[in-house]
């Protein structure tokens, strides 16, 4: 068995070397090591695979799974968005007649009910996302920076902060659903009975306009620990001597935070904010478990909206068109974001 | 960050400094206040979950109490009969366990290929797999639902509603992150180690199993926990792709609130029971997850 295909290079271990290492591709050939005679006595495997094929063989299961669950369904989803795929054709989709851009026209006709509701849901989602991502990032950053030094109870506190992220989403959100109950919940008990902030009123949190704030609270509660976890990992890579040197130059803690810690976190923040944005914008679980199948307008996130539009009417064609529009929007935002932040980063460098 | 050594740099007179672990008072007070508020925000719902799970039904019917009037373990007994919790539990264990095992095995192989080989399509693979992670789930849900329904009609194999279909779906959810993180882990293992194994007569797969896997066990354990958490908590696909017999906990637990009355004490008890394994696993292994994130981020 030749062992040559492993690109061993000059002890490649750092990232830069790896990504530039593609040039080595295709240099398969003779054995790299002289094989010591002892190894000849070992039983050889019966199959001799061309070494060039091995990486593909190792990847095959992952590729097949991704194809079945992600790639093919996206293609099928795009096809569906051009079909009249209503209840009659669900069990026999090959017969669904073509509809051209009809489904898209329905989705973006903002004067008619379907389009108007979709637009409202889109705006609500944008509002929830901006608030929730901003707050999650802020809390995560604050906690990560404040917990950079050792102090008593730090390990325990860190574990406590990670609990919301570790909880299964439905368990966490159902707990919040209980806390937000109007008559039996903790939130109204604190606000109305203990702090008397509501003027004797017991507001509804899961019905009506307050649903928006309830949803933002739950999403922030669940996602700020993730920001905290990622930023903590990022802070471990900031070289200590930077702080030591700046302290010798007389910089205080706050100046160090501003001039060393935050700039050092910028590359991680670029990815973190994007991930938080995509997760929140696509969030289905939180509103679905919190409100059930009839969310208030302020809690009708776009994934849940498309889900309801599809499964209430069984009109999968329109639902697919809406999903494709959502995907296009996310791709556009991601592309603009990456271009803008990368340009700023290189301008800073 | 402030463990400044008292020694001065060359050419600078030594100045007396604070003790290394002693940031200024403004920083310490900010820390105390902010972290206390965050702890309250984080832990109050957790406390409410625990305390309410120990309440008799009359406590959760009326106004909220911070403490149970008479603590009882009844909710932990009753929750099994209000909804078929044991069945949901079994389904969740099968689905999440199956998806995790498959996902980790597949990810180890793929990560080995990505980290140790240069081959055509390597970059396309990594980018495609990672980007699917970011697409909205609803985009796959409708087509996947139709694919499973129609494939079942065509072949006679019931895919829709089956645990197998759910396992296949869930394993792909954790796959991208697992491959990415394990590839980072594998990169950090010196190649000399697997070359030494090859010299001793191991094939590439032997080197993977005997050298790489043992050396990156923390990473593999962390990925396992992550994959299990992902499958254990999934709601969207479970809400569509399961039937009465295959329903998992994520949908089954909502059964407590669609009945005539909401048994909030039992909801909290059941939530707690299904959460404890994953939360404990995560908290025990979060250190490895942080290391893995750092290893991956180096790339």
From TrEMBL, chain A:
Membrane topology of this protein: Multi-pass membrane protein
Keyword Transmembrane helix appears in the UniProt entry: yes
Residue span(s) of domain ABC transmembrane type-1: 122-337
Coiled-coil regions, chain positions: none
Protein's UniProt keywords contain Glycosyltransferase: no
Gene Ontology CC annotations of this record: plasma membrane
Protein name per Swiss-Prot or TrEMBL: ABC transporter permease subunit
Species for this entry: Actinomadura physcomitrii
UniProtKB/TrEMBL annotation, chain B:
Record CDD domains: TM_PBP2
Domain ABC transmembrane type-1 residue range list: 89-285
Name of the protein described by the UniProt record: ABC transporter permease subunit
Subcellular location: Cell membrane
Principal location class: membrane
Compositional bias of kind Low complexity: 1-11
Similarity field: Belongs to the binding-protein-dependent transport system permease family.
Cellular component annotations (GO), alphabetically ordered: plasma membrane
Transmembrane segments: 33-50, 88-112, 124-147, 167-186, 207-229, 263-285
GO biological process: transmembrane transport
Keyword Oxidoreductase on entry: no
Pfam families with a match to the protein in the record: BPD_transp_1
Keywords assigned by UniProt, alphabetized: Cell membrane, Membrane, Transmembrane, Transmembrane helix, Transport
Region (Disordered): 1-24
Superkingdom of the source species: Bacteria
Membrane topology: Multi-pass membrane protein
PROSITE patterns associated with the record: ABC_TM1
């Amino acid at each position: 068995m030749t062992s040559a295909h492993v690109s061993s290079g000059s002890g490649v271990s750092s990232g830069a070397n790896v990504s530039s290492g593609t040039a080595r591709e295709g240099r398969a050939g003779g054995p790299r090591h002289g094989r010591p005679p002892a190894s000849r006595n070992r039983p050889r495997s019966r199959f001799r695979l061309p070494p060039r094929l091995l990486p593909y063989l190792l990847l095959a299961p992952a590729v097949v799974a991704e194809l079945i669950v992600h790639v093919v369904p996206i293609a099928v989803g795009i096809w569906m968005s051009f079909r009249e795929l209503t209840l009659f054709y669900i069990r026999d989709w090959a017969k669904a007649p073509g509809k051209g851009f009809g489904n898209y026209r329905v989705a973006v006709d903002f004067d008619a009910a379907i389009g108007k509701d979709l637009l409202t849901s889109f705006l609500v989602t944008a509002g929830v996302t901006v608030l929730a991502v901003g707050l999650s990032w802020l809390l995560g950053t604050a906690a990560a920076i404040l917990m950079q030094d050792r102090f008593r109870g730090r390990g325990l506190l860190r574990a406590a902060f990670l609990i919301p992220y570790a909880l299964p989403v439905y368990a966490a959100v159902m707990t919040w659903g209980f806390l937000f109950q109007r008559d039996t919940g903790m939130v109204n008990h604190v606000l109305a009975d203990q702090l008397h902030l509501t003027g004797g009123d017991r507001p509804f949190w899961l019905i009506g306009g307050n649903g928006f704030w309830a949803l933002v609270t739950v999403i922030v509660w669940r996602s700020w620990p993730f920001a905290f976890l990622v930023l903590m990992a990022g802070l471990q890579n900031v070289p200590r001597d930077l702080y030591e040197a700046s302290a010798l130059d007389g910089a205080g803690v706050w100046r160090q935070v501003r001039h060393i810690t935050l700039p050092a976190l910028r590359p991680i923040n670029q990815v973190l904010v994007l991930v938080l944005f995509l997760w929140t914008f696509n969030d289905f679980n939180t509103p679905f478990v919190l409100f059930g199948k009839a969310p208030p307008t302020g809690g009708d996130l776009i994934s849940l909206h498309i889900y309801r539009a599809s499964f209430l009417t069984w009109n999968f064609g329109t639902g697919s068109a809406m999903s494709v529009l959502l995907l296009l929007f996310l791709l556009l935002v991601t592309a603009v974001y990456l271009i803008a932040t990368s340009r700023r980063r290189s301008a800073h460098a | 960050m402030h463990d400044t050594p008292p020694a001065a740099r060359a050419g600078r007179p030594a100045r007396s400094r604070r003790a290394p672990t002693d940031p200024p008072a403004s920083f310490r007070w900010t820390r105390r206040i902010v972290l206390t508020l965050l702890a309250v925000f984080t832990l109050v719902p957790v406390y409410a979950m625990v305390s309410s799970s120990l309440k008799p039904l009359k406590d959760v019917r009326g106004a909220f109490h911070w403490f149970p009037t008479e603590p009882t373990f009844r909710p932990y007994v009753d929750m099994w009969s209000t909804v078929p919790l044991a069945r949901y539990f079994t389904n969740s264990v099968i689905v999440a366990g199956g998806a995790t095992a498959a996902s980790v095995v597949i990810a180890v192989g793929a990560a080995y290929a990505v980290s140790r080989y240069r081959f055509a399509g390597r970059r396309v693979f990594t980018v495609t797999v990672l980007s699917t992670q970011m697409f909205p789930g609803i985009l796959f849900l409708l087509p996947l639902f139709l694919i499973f329904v129609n494939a079942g009609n065509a072949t006679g194999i019931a895919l829709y509603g089956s645990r197998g279909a759910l396992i296949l779906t869930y394993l792909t959810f954790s796959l991208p992150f697992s491959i990415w993180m394990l590839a980072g882990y594998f990169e950090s293992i010196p190649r000399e180690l697997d070359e030494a194994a090859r010299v001793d007569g191991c094939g590439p797969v032997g080197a993977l199993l005997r050298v790489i896997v043992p050396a990156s066990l923390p990473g593999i354990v962390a990925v396992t926990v992550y994959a299990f958490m992902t499958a254990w908590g999934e709601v969207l696909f479970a809400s569509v792709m399961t039937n009465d017999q295959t329903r998992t906990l994520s949908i089954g637990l909502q059964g407590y609130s669609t009945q005539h009355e909401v048994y909030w004490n039992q909801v909290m008890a059941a939530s707690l029971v299904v959460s404890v394994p994953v939360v404990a696993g995560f908290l025990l292994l979060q250190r490895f997850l942080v290391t893995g994130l750092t290893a991956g981020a180096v790339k």
